[in-house]
Amino acid sequence: MGARERSYRYVGPAELKAGVRHGDGGRRVGSAAEFGDWVAERSAAELAEPFTYVVGTDGVLRLAPRRSEHVACAGGAVVLSAGEMGFVREFARGAVRWTVSEVSNQSTGYCPDVTSWPGVARALDRAGLGRPSGFTHEVVFRRCPDCQEHNIVREDYFVCVFCGGDLPEAWNVDPSL
């Protein structure tokens, strides 16, 4: 983890975190071999959709089926980032290489900032995966200082959809950080 890298606690519905049991968590993908094992177990239909992912504070990518809760994928733990990720096979020079085709920070349970990309990039590099230079879909999360609701900022319109209050320019979702 970088010197100024932020980690994210789960800030979603308490009942979802309460449902996480010991041993829950996404599949650890810390190397090209681990990714190879994981992808070999996936069907073509599964691979056609993005997957739920988290990057733990250990810097390791964890993957789960798309409709999985991020807090379950993380085993209830703090993360460096969370979102959705899709993969494609590329063929080059007679070899097959897996590449991340799409990746977002879309997790309403953790609400990671767009600045969480470096942790994702390191985890993907460690897993031997080709990747884009940043999130292919960035989601901007903010907590309203007036009503405390979590918001997704669209088109740089920093106004709370719940109460109309102004939203801050800087990430502020977790009040304890």
Describe the structure.
The strands form 2 sheets. Strands 1-3-2-4-5 form a 5-stranded antiparallel beta sheet. Strands 6-7 form a two-stranded antiparallel sheet. Strand 6 and strand 7 form a beta hairpin. It starts with 13 loop residues before the first helix and ends in a 24-residue tail after the last strand. It contains 5 helices and 7 strands; from the N terminus they run H-E-H-H-E-E-H-E-E-H-E-E. The protein has 2 domains: 125 residues, no CATH class; 33 residues. With 177 residues, it is α+β, with helices and mostly antiparallel strands. It is globular. The longest helix is centred in the C-terminal third of the chain and has 10 residues. The model has no long low-confidence stretch (mean pLDDT 94).
In total, how many domains does the architecture comprise?
Answer: 2
Net shape = globular
Judged by helices, strands and strand pairing, the structural class is alpha+beta
Which strand order spans the largest sheet, edge to edge or round the barrel? 1-3-2-4-5
Q: How helical, in percent, are the residues?
A: 10-25%
The DSSP helix count reads: 5
How many E strands? 7
User: What distance lies between the first and last C-alpha atoms, to the nearest angstrom?
Assistant: 17 Å
What is the gyration radius calculated from CA atoms? 17 Å
- What proportion strand? 15-25%
Mean pLDDT: 94
- The poorly predicted ranges are none
Helix and strand succession?
Answer: HEHHEEHEEHEE
